Amino acid sequence: MKPIKFFSLAITLLLFSKITAQEFKLGKVTVAELEQKVHPKDSATPAAILYKKGKARIEYDQTDGFVTVTDVEARIKIYKKEGYDWANKAVWYYKQSNFTEKVYFSDAYTYNLVNGKIEKTKLKTEGTFDEVLNKYRSQKKITMPNVKEGSVIEYKYTIKSPSDRSIREWEFQETIPVNYSEFMTAIPEYYVFNSRQKGYVFPKMTVEKSPKSIIFTNKERSQGQVSTTTFSTDKIDYTETRTTYVAQDFPAIKEEAFVNNMDNYVSSIQHELSMTKFPNSQMKMYSTDWNSVAKTIYDYESFGPELNKTGYYEDDLKALLAGKNTPEEKIWVILNHVKSNVKWNGYRGYDCDNGVKKAYKEKTGNIGDINLMLTSMLRYSGLEANPVLVSTRENGIALFPNRTAFDYVIAAVETPTGYLLLDASDKFSTPNILPFRTINWTGRLIRKDGTSEEIELTPKKLSNDVVFMSYSIDAEGKISGKTRRQCSDHMALLTREKIDGVKQEDYLEKLENKNGKIEINDYTRTNEKEILLPTIETYSFTGNDLCEIIGGKIYVSPMLFFTNDKNPFKQEVREYPVDFGFPQLEKYSINIQIPDGFTVETLPTSAAINMEDNAGSFKFVVAQNGNSIQFSIASQINDAIFSAEKYEMLKEYFKGMIAKETEKIVLKRI
């Protein structure tokens, strides 16, 4: 009986899937969809995707040859005003002189229920916009009309790309629930794509093959007294593989603290061309592993050959390197020379845009221009230097071998003690202190012969944030004190970025408001420009709202405005790694003078919390000497990245730390 039951169930599911798919058609909005007030599985969501279908097909165009055409249609329900943004849709496309894609919107309507009847409002021309994003990309954007709470919107768009080698990533999850999402690829037998899924929930997949054909029209013109034109057709038959991915009832992806990029964990499907085999042609292999990706990139005219150009800087560098004998001296002078003479134009990219020679002359360039130039100069000085391909945090973790996995390049100098990583695009970076945007797990170092290796980008050294604070409390609860804050390494880099270009009065106003509306005086800042040294900030402060007086007793949190009072880890279960970026130490040395006529009724006790495997520790030490109380508080995170399996440990660590930091000193009158 079991095989019969299974067969029956399979038939039922197959019929159900076909029926369900048939229900999703543009223009078939129902009264029930418009009447729905909340999402049945997520009552808090402001909107939901009722269905989204996409089809990417590689087809033959008589003019352009094989091209990629992607059709997408969607129906979205708006529940609340907070969901109005989902009534806007933007689709990016490449727009360059030698490569331009086209985007067309159609069948765009807003549906509302008015007096029990469905009212349909069409998107007008003025609701469609073209915007330039940068010199490589533009976007087509629509703003749907007559959107209200309860509206349902629909639209369709088509992307036509002149390339036959690129299928866009399809995301099955969004920040709102997705009731149904379907994506199909239709690929001729001449192409082999590697498909890779990411995320924590996966769609169902089916594959089918079907015959297809291409009809070629040939035109021939005869020569003679009377010329004639004849037409003939040729037909080529081939097999097309159709792969369909279906996701149903996928939950909204939720933002969580300390995630480097949520897109890394969204359920999606990616495709990378690995091989082409056309009739009467040799098989051509593309990126199949990281080594071949790196070799392909290194062979680009705008990458490897640019590293070999030296004539444009030789005279300048000879003068700068005179008398510089140690690797450290050479690295520092070359890094500063590039920083000072070539400014980043804001464009990323691992290969050159203008070319190193032009960038040096015009004193501006993209990331590739700057850091390939840096690598070349380091090599010229006699150092073992190589470029390192990087995927920035914004671009996501480079999970699968493909050329678009990277969007950045830095330089690495090999030393007896390991690699020194350098980025000349950031004015505050120093050797092994990279901009935060680049600290994204691993990169790929490429040597001169095209071989490559994975290289760790996550720092191992602790970055310190050390605070010395001394304050007194008067009988009325007013607090007056002094603070000295010293930050090193990545903490210093982040501090310099935060204060760069900000007027001091604006910075102090924000600092005062953030820290319990204190009043700051005697503010000084040290080593703001001396980037090899720690940043130091000192100031005096007074505050009338930093403690509470209840029943004649004074209640005060020892750390005042430095107290951590909220646990960033609130989820019961976490599916994603926790990424702090770099190991870090926050340390506070605090001295408190209690007012005359008061004594300590309650004092927090010393405590210590240690995570497993030396992942981190928290120490809270208290000592009292007469009217003076001293606190030494340190939180040390040794691992920059915690796997999801260690989430519960990290959550409990922060829970215990916050509970201790928020304990209050209670002072009572004598």
Main sheet: strands, sense, barrel: 8 strands, mixed
The helical percent reads 10-25%
Poorly predicted sequence stretches spanning 5 or more consecutive residues? 1-22
Give the CA-based shape: globular
Sequence of strands across the biggest β-sheet: 6-5-9-2-1-11-14-13
Q: What is the beta-strand fraction?
A: 35-45%
Count of beta strands: 37
Write up this protein:
The protein has 670 residues and is of the alpha+beta class. It is built from eleven helices and 37 strands. The strands form eight sheets. It has an eight-stranded mixed β-sheet with strand order 6-5-9-2-1-11-14-13. Helix 6 (327-341) runs antiparallel to helix 8 and helix 7 (356-362) crosses helix 8. The longest helix has 22 residues, at 2-23. It is globular and about 120 Å long. Mean pLDDT is 93; it is low at 1-22.
Task: Describe the structure using short key phrases.
670 residues, alpha+beta, 8-stranded mixed β-sheet, 11 helices, 37 strands, 18% helix, disordered N terminus
How are the SSEs ordered, and which strands pair?
Layout: H1 2-23, H2 31-35, E1 47-61, E2 65-78, E3 88-96, E4 99-100, E5 102-114, E6 117-122, E7 128-132, E8 137-143, E9 152-161, E10 170-171, E11 178-188, E12 191-198, E13 204-221, E14 229-250, E15 268-276, E16 284-285, H3 290-298, H4 304-307, H5 314-321, H6 327-341, E17 343-344, H7 356-362, E18 364-365, H8 367-380, E19 385-390, E20 408-415, E21 418-422, E22 442-446, E23 452-456, E24 463-473, E25 479-487, H9 489-499, H10 504-514, E26 519-526, E27 535-543, E28 547-550, E29 553-556, E30 578-579, E31 584-593, E32 598-602, E33 607-610, E34 616-625, E35 628-637, E36 641-642, H11 647-661, E37 665-669
Parallel strand pairs: 1-11, 17-18, 24-31
Antiparallel strand pairs: 1-2, 2-9, 3-4, 3-8, 5-6, 5-9, 7-8, 10-15, 11-14, 12-15, 13-14, 15-16, 19-20, 19-22, 20-21, 22-23, 24-25, 25-27, 26-27, 28-29, 29-37, 30-36, 31-35, 32-37, 33-34, 34-35
Helix pairs in contact: 6-8, 7-8
